[in-house]
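It would be a great kindness if you could assist me with a short task in structural biology. A protein sequence and the C-alpha cells that stand for its backbone fold form the material at issue. I should value your view on which stretches of the chain appear to form regular backbone elements. The record follows directly beneath this note.
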Amino acid sequence: MRAIFLSDAHLKGPDDAAHPKLIRFFDRLQGREDGGRSIHADTLAVDHLVIAGDFFDFWFGRGDAVYPGFRPVIDRIVVLKQQGVRICLCEGNHDFFLGDYFTGKLGIEVYPEWAEFEIDGLRVLVSHGDTVDRGNRKYLALRRFLRSRFARALQRLLPLKLLWRLARLSSEMSKEMSGETQDRLAEIMHRYALGKFQEGYDAVILGHCHKPILREAIYDGRPKTFATLGDWMANDSYLSYDDGRFSLNRFLPEE
C-alpha cells in the first residue's frame, strides 16, 4: 500500500503558483490499474490519495458548474481515480459543501471533518484540523455559520458570479479569524494527537497548520505517528506512506 497525503494548496485559479506545481505532481502519480500501462521510472505508483482540506482557497459549486479556474486540477484528480486510485477529500475551513459535486458527480469520497482509514492494519485519523483548537471561539462560530443551512440555502439562490465573489470574501474572513502562530497551533495539534494515541489510533495526520512536521515515537509499545502536512505555497510538502513507513517530502518539479 502506498498512500499520499497533502493539504493547504489554497488554489484560487490557474494563475496561482501552486496550480502548475500540483498539475506536475499529479502527473507523476499513477494508479496501479492504469490499463496495464507500465510504471515509468519518473512516476510513482499510488493506491490512495488523501487531500486534507483547503485544497481550494474557496469553494462554491452548483450542479455541474464549478469555478472554471479549478477545472484543470480537478480533471487530473479524475484521471487518477480512473486509474484505480482511491481519492478522499477532507473539507477545510476554506472549502466545504464539496459532497454535492465531488461525491454526487464524480464518486469521490468527501469527509466534512474527520476521516478514519485502515492502512496495512494501522488506524489512521485524518482531518483538516481547524476544529482542534477549541479555544478559538470566534473562528468556530464563523465556521458554524458558514456551514449552516441558511448559508447553504443562500448559496443555492445567488448568481454564480456573485457567489464566487462572496466565496473569496468568506475565504479572507476565515483567514483572519483562524490566524494563529504555526508553532502554537502545532503544539495544540500534537497534544490532541497524544489523546488519540491513547484511544488506539496509530497515526494522526492534520492540515491547517501550514508547517510540515513529522513526529514518531513509541507509545504503549507501539509506534505512533503525528504529522502536519504543511502547504503548497511555501513548502510544496506532502506525506507519503510506503511499506510500513511514513515520510515527509517536498516536491521539487525540476528534479
About this structure: The chain has one domain: 2-250. Helices lie at 18-28, 71-82, 99-103, 137-146, 149-157, 160-177, 182-198.
